[in-house]
Every structure is written in C-alpha cells, then in structure tokens.
C-alpha cells in the first residue's frame, strides 16, 4: 500500500523545492489564533516575526465518589483527589514570515512539562509555502485538516475541550499533530459557494517522533463547501497502511451561524466520523485478535449548539451558553465501549477573539459499562477555567 503514496510525496516535495511557499491561507478572524500586535520588523531577509500564546488555568472538582479530577476511578485509593487547581495549557508560538511566500512556525505547550514529556511539549513545527490562493504547501509537524476541529485552535472552541472522537482519531494518526506534508488552497472565494481543499500525507504515529514506526503512510483529503460564518459542509476521507494492513477513515461535518436577533445568534456545529481503530487492534494480545484490523471500526457523532449574546460592556464582548452532546463507540463489531458525553458551558468572553475568557461548565461521561480502576467509568466533573490569549 505504501508504494501508492510515492508519486504524491515526490510531487509535493518537488513543488516545495522548486517553487516559493507559506502557511495556511488566512482563515476568518474567528479561526486566527496568532496575535497581530506583537510584531517586530527585522532588517535583511526576514520580514516579520510575530509572537503569541495562550494560558489556561482551571479548577476541577469531581462530583462522583471514588473518581478523581482526571475522571479515573480509583477504588483502592485511601483518599481520592477530587478537587484541584491546574494549568491546562501554557502555549507559546513564534511565526517568521521569511519572504512573501515562505513562513515558518513553532508552537510549544509548556504545561506538558508537568508530566512525562515524551511525545509532548512541541506541537507545531513547520515551513509553509504559498504559490497562490489555490496552491499552498506545508511540511513538518502540523494538524492535517480532517474535520471541523482541525480548523480551530482549542482556545476559541465553544466547549471546554475538543471532542472524544477528535482525540481518538488523533491517536490513530488522522487528526491532531502529525508529521508529514500537506497541499491546500481555496477557489471561488467571492462566489456564493466558496471552496477549500486540503490533501495531506503523514507518518501517522503522532508528534515528536524520530521517524515513522513502519513503512505505511496515512493520506487524508478534505473538501469544504460554503462559508463557516454562514453555512458550510465538509467532506473528509482518508486511507493508508499500518504495519502492512489497509486502514481507512471517513467523515462529514456541518457548521453555520443563524442570526436570531440583532444581538443574538446561534452557532451550530455537528460532525460524524468512522474509521478503523488500529490503535485498539494492535494494543490487544495476539490471542484476542480474531479478525483483521479492517473489522475493528470506531465511530462517533456530536452536536454543539452555542447561543451567543453580543454585548459591549467595558471589555466584555459576549455571553455564551453551549451544550455539546457526543456519542462515541471504540469498536462497533466486537461489543466495544460506548461513551456518551454531555458538556454544558457558560462563557464570558472579553476583548476580541476570546482574548480573555471565563468558562464554567461540567463534563458528564456515561459508559455502557464501568471498568473499575480505569477512566472507562461514569464521572461528573465540574470545571471553572480562566483563559488569556496574547
């Protein structure tokens, strides 16, 4: 299977070497997490360097006896830590606009130094190249576009965190931070139905790895029709090979904004994905693998309505109320675990694009069966979070 990717990889690398390039096309302001007010002009070849970041601190309290602040059931612990202050993210980002075509970026999360740093801390590290609106390239470590949540930084989502399906498909190499190459662009930007596309080929063994762990690669494609600030439809597909076995993933997403009144609007996001759960498959002992990896299929769907009241009171810009519901099953054909999550949240947004934010919410997880001593256990977490973007 991996031989099928050689022509595509060769073509992309030749374009990267022979032509000029840059970062992802400038998205709508709501998607942009890079600040514009920390720019320093330098003489010579480098035109501009910008610095930014986000800080998230939270208080978490578990409302279920025997379940700690991480949602892990600990039946044998003498005293379970059921409330704690913590630093969720402390990200720093630097972007260098080397020329009108080349851009380099690095993003690190210093909060991950609090635990095991293997495969962590470094999030983005890539060089991008802009040929024109329709043809752009990125090579390095980045998030390949394979759904709605890949288009947003976590600090501007309308919930407490990314969805369960995002992390599951990320651990299987389709989403989150991966190492590879991407080609993307936009068409019909001024028409009623603008179009965007993205093609990526990645190692598929997640971030901060010395090299691929097999000879297989994962290829993904996304086509987006419409404007996410009005109504858009996204189609996602991927295929590849893991340890010489074929794997796939598909998905569809819908998003839009519905004006309800001069100061009220409803933001809607919904996404469905299905694909092989090869991480689960290869984690099983050989004696329990009764079928090929193609029979181990995970799927998930979520809906996220967010009511926003726009206000102009000193630095307060909006008051928002959201409720995300998600259904996720890690193995459809072998009596897998079903996880249902309910995440209500109230948010106060300050400054532009969530420059400051206060969030209060709950994460309610319900499983079809509890497994003592694990995170696969019913839990109810109360979360208060403060965020600052700079």
From TrEMBL:
SUPFAM superfamilies: Porins (SSF56935). It comes from the Bacteria. Pfam families: Porin_O_P. InterPro entries: Porin_dom_sf (IPR023614), Porin_O/P (IPR010870). The keyword Signal applies. Residues 1-23 form the signal peptide. Keywords: Signal. The keyword Ribonucleoprotein does not apply. This is Porin. It comes from Chitinophaga eiseniae.
């Amino acid at each position: 299977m991996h031989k099928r990717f050689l022509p595509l990889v060769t073509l992309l690398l030749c374009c990267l070497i022979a032509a000029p390039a840059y970062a992802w096309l400038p998205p709508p302001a709501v998607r942009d997490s890079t600040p514009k007010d920390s720019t320093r002009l330098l003489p010579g070849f480098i035109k501009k360097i910008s610095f930014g970041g986000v800080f998230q601190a939270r208080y978490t309290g578990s409302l279920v006896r025997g379940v700690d602040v991480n949602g892990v059931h600990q039946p044998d612990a003498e005293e379970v830590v059921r409330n704690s202050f913590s630093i969720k993210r402390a990200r720093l980002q630097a972007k260098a606009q080397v020329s009108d075509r080349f851009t380099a970026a690095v993003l690190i999360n210093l909060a991950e130094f609090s635990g095991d740093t293997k495969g962590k801390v470094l999030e983005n590290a890539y060089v991008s190249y802009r040929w024109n609106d329709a043809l752009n390239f990125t090579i390095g470590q980045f998030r390949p576009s394979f759904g709605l949540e890949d288009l947003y930084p976590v600090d501007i989502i309308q919930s407490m965190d990314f969805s369960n399906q995002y992390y599951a498909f990320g651990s299987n190499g389709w989403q989150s931070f991966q190492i590879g190459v991407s080609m993307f662009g936009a068409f019909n930007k001024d028409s009623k139905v603008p179009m965007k596309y993205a093609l990526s080929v990645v190692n598929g063994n997640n971030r901060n790895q010395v090299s691929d762990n097999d000879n297989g690669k994962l290829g993904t494609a996304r086509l987006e029709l419409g404007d996410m600030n009005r109504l858009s439809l996204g189609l996602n597909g991927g295929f590849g090979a893991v340890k010489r076995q074929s794997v796939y993933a598909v998905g569809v997403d819908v998003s839009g904004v519905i004006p309800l009144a001069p100061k009220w609007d409803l933001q809607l996001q919904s996404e469905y994905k299905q694909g092989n759960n090869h991480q689960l498959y290869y984690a099983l002992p050989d004696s329990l693998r009764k079928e090929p990896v193609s029979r181990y299929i995970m799927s998930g769907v979520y809906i996220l309505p967010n009511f926003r009241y726009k206000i102009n009171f000193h630095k307060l810009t909006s008051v928002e109320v959201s409720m995300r519901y998600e259904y996720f099953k890690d193995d459809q054909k072998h009596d897998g675990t079903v996880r249902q999550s309910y995440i209500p949240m109230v948010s106060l947004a300050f400054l532009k694009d969530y420059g400051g934010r206060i969030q209060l919410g709950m994460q309610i997880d319900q499983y079809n069966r509890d497994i003592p001593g694990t995170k696969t256990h019913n839990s109810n977490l109360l979360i208060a979070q403060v965020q600052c973007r700079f």
